[in-house]
Amino acid sequence: MRCGGETREVKARSAVIASGGFEANVPWLKEYWGDAAENFLIRGTKYNQGLMLKELLHHGAKPVGDPRGCHAVAIDARAPKFDGGIERQTVAAHAPVTARPPFFGSACLLG
Description:
It is elongated and about 50 Å long. It is 14% helix and 20% strand. It has one domain (2-110). By secondary structure, it is of the alpha+beta class. The chain has two helices and seven strands; from the N terminus they run βββααββββ. Strands 3-7-4 form a three-stranded antiparallel β-sheet, with helices on one face. A two-stranded antiparallel ribbon has the order 1-2.
């Protein structure tokens, strides 16, 4: 770890790494959701690609959570593919419902 311009080694039996999810990584979403992932409207940023998460998993981190879990909300079907945002959320009963991709791996357990 770097602290005050110095590099220090930290020894621990385990660590929790909060690296974000992969909600905007459509190819990765398709591994769990199939072709339906192509139609997801992502409320969050297009930059949630899960790059750090993928690297942690590659190096033996234990994934936590269900990769097919999601938080589904009603949003305007005219919203852009990414960054649909809360301001575009609708509460109308006739609104189309889309699935917000999972936050699988928001935390990994090392050790």
